[in-house]
Amino acid sequence: MRSPTQPSPLAGTKQRLISVLQGEALWPPPVWLMRQAGRYLPEYREVRASVSGFLELCYTPALAAEVTLQPIRRYGFDAAILFSDILVIPDALGQRVRFLEGEGPRLDPIGSESELARLDLAATDEKFSRVYETVQRLRQDLPRETALIGFCGAPWTVATYMVGGEGSSDQAAARSLAYRDPQTFARLIDIVTAASIDYLDGQVRAGADALQIFDSWAGNLPDGEFANWVVAPTRRIVAELQRRHPQTPIIGFPRGAGANAESYVRATEVEGLGCDTATPLRQMRALADQTGVAVQGNLDPLLLAAGGPQLDARVRGTLAAMRGAPFIFNLGHGIVPHTPPEHVARLVELVRSTTTGA
Ligand code: CP3
């Protein structure tokens, strides 16, 4: 531990991502991309092929740190995002999680009080500590000006996988359980919320400079359920992290929130709002202007994969619409595996060379 009299190793280095999350409108804006480490990079595929499973990669600090650094070396993004997965929390709680090649995650689904009772909050540290070691290595190896983003999934989104046992486009299993047995569902949300607070706290103590909460499936809930299962647990996480680590800003990403985005920002008190691909630029701008939140997004990952003059035009249009607001350039969802790496280089060049915003 550092003593309070020693200067922080980061003293004097103001990270651009952090300035924007504190409300500054920096130009050109900082840029990083969701899933910037991943299968579109040949160097990632090489490391991935050296391990037997995806979770093994997440739990091997030297390799997880290496794949986190790969896109930073190539593109010099303003932020690195810890390489891990939102399903580390159910795995650490003792639910069986597997990643099937080409098919995505599979979990032994939880549908009853007795299945819920098997989850063990006290067991999480064994797996979480490997992730914290990755964070420590990264904070040492990254350039000081590159912010390190820690993350977790939001309780609602994580619960959709825990109850459904796999990804689905309508989250029917979790929505049904929440209607049929709201008490059991609330207990599940409480366990995931408590684990998420521990997990994010550990990441900040290990060196994360900012945090993002991924709520990928926030968009399918009626307003009462949105308030109960998306806003309330996220508010609990944000409030507790802000109490413990007031210097560490938090970005919420309630994908699909649509008309609920403003109430999400006001109620959760996140410092940053990740906006999905369908959010109109004028709404993103209005959210920043009206609530003071820093907005992040929202280029379509499929446009990045397609490239060409349409990509250039949309990047320029986004920059023009957001100039003067606290804005972080990003995608509206994660990079898709067939994205040519040179399109990412082009995107970064366009963002960095913006001067007039026109
Ligand atoms: O962004 C980054 O570079 C950091 C790492 C990161 C991963 N997953 C790595 C990953 C992050 C932040 C995530 C978040 C995540 N994981 C979300 C929320 C964001 C979103 O995309 O909506 C969700 C829903 C998951 C759960 C998950 N993990 C799914 C559904 C899948 C399978 C789909 C797929 O793309 O294969 C994963 C696997 C996964 N997580 C991969 C990576 C790089 C690919 C697995 C591999 O390399 O074999």
Features:
16 helices; 7-stranded parallel sheet; 9 strands; globular; single chain; TIM Barrel; alpha/beta; 358 residues; binds coproporphyrinogen III; two-stranded antiparallel sheet; disordered N terminus
Kindly describe this structure.
This protein is 50% helix and 12% strand. With 358 residues, the protein is of the alpha/beta class. It has a single domain (11-353), classed as TIM Barrel, CATH 3.20.20.210. It has a 7-stranded parallel sheet with strand order 1-4-5-6-7-8-9. The protein has a two-stranded antiparallel sheet with strand order 2-3. A hairpin with a 3-residue loop joins strand 2 and strand 3 (104-107). The model is unreliable at 1-7 (pLDDT under 50). Coproporphyrinogen III is lined by residues 34-39, 48, 54, 81, 83-87, 99, 104-105, 151, 153, 167, 214, 216, 334.
